[in-house]
Amino acid sequence: MSPAKFCWTIFMEEKLLTMEELTKLYPKLSAKLPEEAIQVATKEQTKKGYDTTGYGYQYIVNRMNEVLGPSHWRQIVEIIKEVPKGDKLVEVTMRVTVQIGNWISGTFVPIAEQVAFGGHASMTLSDAYKGAHTNTLKKALAMFGVGKEAYEGSLDDDNRAPDFREKMKNISSKEVNNDSSDFEEFEDFEEETENKPIKAKLLEPIQIKKSKQGASYGTAKIVTKEGEILQLVVFGKELERIQNMKPNQIISVIGEFKDSPVNGRQLIAKDFVA
Q1: What pLDDT score does 187 carry?
Q2: Nearest Cα to 94, choosing from 72, 122, 70?
């Protein structure tokens, strides 16, 4: 081997990222992002019925590029499903695998990876794809520490507007009468998990409505232990069971989460118990 080729080989080997080095880089990956990365959206903007706080997508990507370098990580995107939701919406569900490692002779060799699932509903397919991708990528990168505050709750607590925090405080004390004994049996709540019982408190009596096809369904506002207000939607046989329930009654719901541009975040009940 010529001296020049030998030196180039050593240089390439020194540039390879190892698991030990990645572990040492975690403090840099997980360090808080700059304040300008925080994005606060009002319920009027999100159409979800509540304010949200999170990190901008590009700031998350920038952190990965700055700490690891663009050539030491990649994402693999897979479409799980693409389905119409009603007359106007389309929902895209996606899986994103983020791998950290090294490109060697044109092949990416991972030393660590994380997988996340997520989705988004929008009136256009392109926006549904964009929203699903950014949401899911953020979840995957948070597992490596990047933007983790958005999922552990500390970002929201620190950066929500004072009037929003005061509003949630008033809801807890006045509308919900939320004392700790009401929620003693609550299990951990994972926002996107389906078929897991979600315990919540009714904020109002069920309201009976008619769909365009003439079918009856019911809606009511509910609040989880975490203080998130959702719109509960009930169909079929479950509708008759819930009509006589009163505000402040605790229910356990198995259902599916949906984002409605009109009604905000919804929990479509498949089954429930009082």
Answers
A1: 31
A2: 122
Which residue type occupies 252? S
Contact 132, 14 (CB under 8 A): no
> What is the mean pLDDT of the segment spanning 100-117?
94
Measured in whole angstroms, how far is the alpha carbon of residue 59 from the centre of its chain?
Answer: 17
% of the chain with per-residue pLDDT over 70: 71
Instruction: Tell me which of 173-177, 185-189, 241-245 is least confident.
Output: 185-189
Strands 229-235 and 264-273: parallel
pLDDT in tens, 124-143: 999 999 999 999 999 999 99
- Its pTM stands at 0.53
Taking the C-alpha atoms of residue 69 and residue 155, their distance in angstroms, rounded to an integer, is 26
Q: How many residues does the chain have?
A: 274
Whose CA is closest to 98, among 35, 152, 29?
A: 29
